[in-house]
Amino acid sequence: MSKPQIDAQAGPAPEGLVVADLVVGDGAEATADSVVDVHYVGVDFETGEEFDSSWDRGDSITFPLSRLIAGWQQGIPGMRVGGRRQLTCPPELAYGPAGAGHFLSGRTLVFVIDLLGVE
C-alpha cells in the first residue's frame, strides 16, 4: 500500500470514536495487549492538515497498543494484518481537552492506520 491521503472531513466532529475499515486484512488479529507494527497518517479533522506520518519518516513503528492514545487502544483491536482502518478520535480519546498541554489538545483527529504486524 502507499501513503493514504486524508481530506478535511465534512460536517460536525463526532462525539465518539468512529472506526471505518478501508481495507479488511486477512492476517493475525490485533488484541488490546498486542504489540503492533503500523504505518499511519494523522490529520486534523477540521482542517485536513497533516500533523504526523510514519510514511514521511520512511519507517513503520512498532509499539505496545497499551501505550497509545485511547482512540487507538479502542480502535485497533479486532483489526487484522494487511488491513487499513480510519479512526476519527474526539479530543477525549486523543490528546485531551483544550489546554491539556499537548499541541493537539482539544482537536478531533483522523488517523489512517495500516496494520503490518502483530506480536
Automatic annotation (TrEMBL):
<dbReference type="InterPro" id="IPR001179">
    <property type="entry name" value="PPIase_FKBP_dom"/>
</dbReference>
<comment type="similarity">
    <text>Belongs to the FKBP-type PPIase family.</text>
</comment>
<dbReference type="Pfam" id="PF00254">
    <property type="entry name" value="FKBP_C"/>
</dbReference>
<keyword id="KW-0413">Isomerase</keyword>
<dbReference type="InterPro" id="IPR046357">
    <property type="entry name" value="PPIase_dom_sf"/>
</dbReference>
<feature type="domain" description="PPIase FKBP-type">
    <location>
        <begin position="33"/>
        <end position="119"/>
    </location>
</feature>
<keyword id="KW-0697">Rotamase</keyword>
<dbReference type="GO" id="GO:0003755">
    <property type="term" value="F:peptidyl-prolyl cis-trans isomerase activity"/>
</dbReference>
<protein>
    <recommendedName>
        <fullName>Peptidyl-prolyl cis-trans isomerase</fullName>
        <ecNumber>5.2.1.8</ecNumber>
    </recommendedName>
</protein>
